[in-house]
Design goal:
Layout lengths: L5 H15 L4 H11 L3 E4 L2 E4 L12 H13 L7 E9 L9 E10 L3 E10 L2 E11 L23 H7 L5 H7 L5 E6 L9 E8 L7 H11 L21 E12 L9 E11 L2 E10 L4 E13 L5
Antiparallel strand pairs: 1-2, 2-4, 3-6, 3-9, 4-5, 5-6, 7-8, 8-10, 9-12, 10-11, 11-12
Helix pairs in contact: 1-4, 1-5, 3-6
Length: about 300
């Protein structure tokens, strides 16, 4: 498809940004916080209600990860904080139906607690998560240095990248420009690249409460944005590639230090393997001053189906 003219890009970007700015930032953040506010039904059981209106065909995986973290945390001593999680996406969730969270208290020690969370919808398991919580402790410390990356103000916004893509229709841009609680700026190599590496900066578009759990859950929510696409880079694939089907299979995460998700986080992503219709993706999350605060790994399924000529 021919490259878009500057005038076309400007028009598409202007319309997308106007659409995205149509809802006040504070309202979007309230919506994000409501997403993390589960209702306690019984001992170790929680629900999240069906949404009256939805812009997605299925529940975003990062949302369920974040909610499962909150459910597990509610059953753990207050002094213990989540430091790792391992999860599997089993079935697609429907935003128009409620979610049920059941927490299993597998272990409680003096410094470590372990929880399993099983998420059901229509009496079918759609997601499960195992999480570990630890009391604060002192010990040996080191981290790999943050790589040399462009600052967020020099990276194009997600909307700008979408507006410049000739494979994205005006209808898709309208759908992708739905108001969201995150500001995302990213750097991704164009076309096919032997080095499967990209990075993005993100933060919430307005301040969050000080509760560390909210920031960790929000980071987990955002950690599912774009990670899977890293393993597509060596193959010249993009979410707009005709016939491409991709979905997350699992997601693991480790929290290393405190941070604020309403301040810039740099998500450095790479992939060292694809095969058997799967791709492995890794991510390191840094604060703007270079502190490594979390790591993530995700495997996803990728299939390119034949399309009509």
């Amino acid at each position: 498809m021919d490259k878009l003219t500057d005038e076309q890009v400007e028009r598409r970007l202007s319309e997308a940004l106007a659409h995205r700015a149509s809802v006040p930032a504070e309202k979007l953040i309230r919506g994000l916080l409501r997403t993390l506010d589960l209702t306690a039904d019984a001992a170790d059981e929680f629900t999240f209600p069906a949404l009256e209106s939805t812009a997605r065909e299925r529940i975003f995986g990062g949302q369920v990860i974040a909610q499962a973290i909150v459910a597990a945390d509610r059953t753990v001593d207050e002094e213990k904080k989540i430091h790792s999680l391992h999860s599997y996406f089993l079935r697609a969730g429907d935003e128009t139906k409620p979610l049920h969270f059941r927490v299993h208290r597998d272990f409680d020690g003096r410094s470590i607690s372990n929880r399993r969370v099983v998420v059901r919808q229509d009496d079918k398991v759609i997601f499960n998560l195992t999480a570990s919580f630890q009391k604060p402790a002192e010990g040996l410390s080191h981290q790999i240095a943050m790589p040399d990356v462009l600052p967020p103000e020099q990276c194009p916004s997600a909307m700008e990248q979408i507006a410049r893509n000739p494979l994205v229709s005006d209808e898709q841009i309208e759908r992708m420009s739905m108001p969201r609680p995150f500001d995302v700026r990213s750097f991704r190599p164009e076309g096919k690249s032997a080095t499967a590496r990209q990075y993005q900066w993100f933060r919430t578009i307005a301040p969050l409460p000080d509760d560390p759990l909210i920031h960790r859950a929000t980071l987990a929510f955002a950690s599912d944005m774009g990670l899977l696409s890293t393993s597509m880079i060596p193959h010249g694939l993009h979410w707009t590639t005709p016939g491409l089907f991709s979905t997350s299979l699992d997601h693991a995460m480790w929290f290393h230090d405190d941070f604020r998700a309403d301040q810039w986080i740099c998500y450095v992503m790479d992939s060292d393997w694809t095969g058997h219709a799967r791709g492995l993706n890794r991510g390191s999350l840094y604060t703007q001053d270079g502190v490594l605060v979390a790591s993530a790994v995700q495997e996803g399924m990728m299939r390119v189906m034949p399309t009509d000529p």
